[in-house]
Design goal:
Elements lengths: L13 E10 L5 H18 L2 E17 L2 E13 L1 H13 L3 E13 L28 H4 L5 H84 L1
Antiparallel strand pairs: 1-3, 1-4, 2-3
């Protein structure tokens, strides 16, 4: 009987990969976290090692993807066997927030067990969410049916009108305030004038009463002298 020899299984080498996926520009934080969790789940399940995560942020696309001209770019660096790529891209394809992805091979012949992971390099940084400074063009604008520059001019004119209205309202409010102050001052001056007239009248009446009293005092001696003469 021929001697049987046990052959050692061929060593399975891994590769270093890079994947970049693009998120919709209007995603919310929950959707971003959902994608990050799915990527980590695939890595853990398929024996891959995530070595680098870099959030590049929101950038303008080289060409339209669907209705979008911007997207949020996320870079992944990892070591894995070839079967992980198919599973990762299958998951990325099923995630609604992702509009495009691409994977490339960076290096062959990697010993997966020797790959070291720096925890600080594999954290998903916070993505700045919110409206773009340049809003997405409408379908009519992309087809040339509507002039985008005219739309921008209208928006600027509307903003100027709003500022003008605000200035006019401030000016009117100031005029009203000045008028109220002037009316209040006039009322105060009239009250003071009336009070002064009343005071002058009271003084005049008091003076008149004093004069009458003096006349009465002068007449009393004269009446007494006349009475005395009559008695004699």
């Amino acid at each position: 009987m021929a001697e049987r020899t046990l052959e050692q299984p061929a060593k399975r080498w891994a590769r270093n990969y890079e994947t970049i996926y693009i998120l919709r520009p209007n995603v919310d934080s929950d959707e971003v976290a959902k994608v990050a969790k799915r990527v980590r789940d695939v890595m853990d399940r398929m024996g891959g090692k995530l070595t680098k995560v870099d959030v590049w942020g929101k950038r303008r696309l080289a060409y339209h993807i669907g209705n979008y001209t911007r997207g949020i770019f996320v870079y992944l660096g990892y070591s894995a066997h070839g079967d992980l790529i198919a599973e990762l891209e299958r998951n990325l394809r099923l995630l609604d927030p992702i509009i495009r992805y691409q994977t490339i091979v960076v290096e062959d012949g990697i010993e997966l067990d020797e790959v070291e992971i720096d925890a600080s390099e594999v954290e998903w940084a916070d993505i700045e969410l919110g409206d773009d400074d340049d809003d997405e063009p409408t379908t009519a604008e992309r087809l040339g049916m509507e002039d985008r520059s005219a739309k921008e001019e209208k928006a600027e004119a509307k903003g100027d009108d709003a500022e003008g209205d605000s200035d006019e309202e401030k000016a009117e409010a100031k005029d009203d305030s000045d008028e109220e102050k002037a009316e209040a001052k006039d009322d105060s001056d009239e009250e003071k004038a009336e009070a002064k007239d009343d005071s002058d009248e009271e003084k005049a009446e008091a003076k008149s009463d004093d004069a009458e009293g003096d006349d009465a005092k002068e007449e009393e001696p004269k009446k007494a002298e006349a009475k005395s003469e009559e008695e004699e």
